[in-house]
Amino acid sequence: MTAEYTWDVFSTLDGYGSFVEGADWGGYWSKQGPELLARRSATFDTEQRMVYGATTFREMAEIMSSGIDPNALDEWNLRTMRSPATVISSTLTDTLGWPDATIASGDAVDIVQRLKQESDVPLRSQASLSLNWALMTAGLVDRLQVTVFPVVSGKTGTSPILGGAGDFDLELLESRTLDGHTLELTYRPTPR
């Protein structure tokens, strides 16, 4: 059986995944609410393997190992760190304190094809833009889950979430509104 691979990414309405350092947006662009946080926790309530590129993994590991009080983190972030992770990197040699991480060096497409065949749990990747653009192009992303926050960051936005992706048809599988203003959209991407 082939494990399902979901690419999970946050975005502004205009398609940016982050903002310039010093911009005063705050986490979740200051738009998190109880439904969003509960939905995120529920998403990480079931066993799954996380898949990261090196840059996103470094950022996540830095946050998780920064000495921040775990009570200050949202529950879903804690559940993410407890999940086993595969980091696809040719530069990392250390798991940076991540409790159950494995570093895989080599071609990302080959690694994820193998993971999909061998894993008995679903695979999920957060952010890791260039990694997931390549995996989408190879037809390995089964679900693209975009959480769209109700902001436009045309002046301060960085990292267009689909800026390096190819052309895809998207079949809408699910949609939900969280806290009356944030959209979670789940698509099946098909390369064109």
Key terms for this structure?
alpha/beta, 5 helices, 10 strands, globular
Helix and strand arrangement:
Elements (H helix, E strand, L loop, with lengths): L4 E8 L3 E4 L14 H10 L5 E5 H11 L10 H8 L2 E4 L12 E4 L3 H11 L4 E4 L2 H9 L5 E7 L7 E4 L7 E11 L3 E10 L1
Parallel strand pairs: 1-6, 1-7, 3-4, 3-6, 4-5
Antiparallel strand pairs: 2-8, 7-10, 9-10
Helix pairs in contact: 1-3
Structural write-up:
A hairpin with a 3-residue loop joins β9 and β10. With 192 residues, the protein is of the alpha/beta class. The protein has five helices and ten strands, in the order ββαβααββαβαββββ. The strands form two sheets. An eight-stranded mixed beta sheet has the order 5-4-3-6-1-7-10-9. The protein has a two-stranded antiparallel sheet with strand order 2-8. α1 packs parallel to α3. The chain is 26% helix and 32% strand. It has helices at 34-43, 54-64, 75-82, 108-118, 129-137; strands at 5-12, 16-19, 49-53, 85-88, 101-104, 123-126, 143-149, 157-160, 168-178, 182-191. It has one domain (5-191): Dihydrofolate Reductase, subunit A. Residues 34-179 form the Bacterial bifunctional deaminase-reductase C-terminal domain. InterPro entries: DHFR-like_dom_sf (IPR024072), RibDG_C (IPR002734). This is Dihydrofolate reductase family protein.
